[in-house]
Specification:
It is a single chain. The protein has about 180 residues and is α+β, with helices and mostly antiparallel strands. The protein is about 30% helix and about 30% strand. The protein has 3 helices and 7 strands. It has helices spanning about 25-40, 130-145, 160-175; strands at about 45-50, 60, 70-85, 90-95, 95-100, 105-115, 120-125. The longest helix has 18 residues, at about 160-175. It is globular, with a radius of gyration of 16 Å. It starts with about 25 loop residues before the first helix and ends with a helix. Bound molecules: nickel (II) ion. Nickel (II) ion binds near residues 93, 94, 95, 142 and 146.
Length: about 180
Amino acid sequence: MAILDILHFPDPRLRTKAKPVKEVDDKIRNLIKDMFETMYHEEGVGLAATQVDVHQRVIVIDISKGGNKPQHFINPEIISTEGIFVREEKEGCLSVPETNAEIPRFQKIKIRALNNKNETFELEVDATSGKEQALLAVCIQHEMDHLEGKLFIDYLSPLKRQRIKDKLKKQQREKA
Ligand code: NI
């Protein structure tokens, strides 16, 4: 296993649209393991392959904070949605450090994906049925956006996004 480097906004590679996984093989299984290790190391609740510069449709999530509820999705697709909500707690992203924002998301989603055994499964998440489900609903949509090259700050106004960009660029310069 390995901890992978995470790309940070405004890295243009974060804008890459990920390709579907053609075959669920050991390479993909190892990628998932490394993504979990990276996500836990960075204390995130979700990670998309795009963020580690692998442009295949894979996401990992663990909303438990204790690292005991790992969930992974290969080639995830949203097959139905219902309603819109904004979660009380603001959204953040490992690729956009120190930035949080309220983002409207679908309240109820049904998704279909493959697991690491190449089995298709479906999952329904309803944000109205509790805090954990609300976080999971947001997290799935957030990570799936990454696979499209989309970031949560894209939902904000261009002015706000520019301010975030300036702030992060300044920080990156200071670190370099
Ligand atoms: Ni993110």
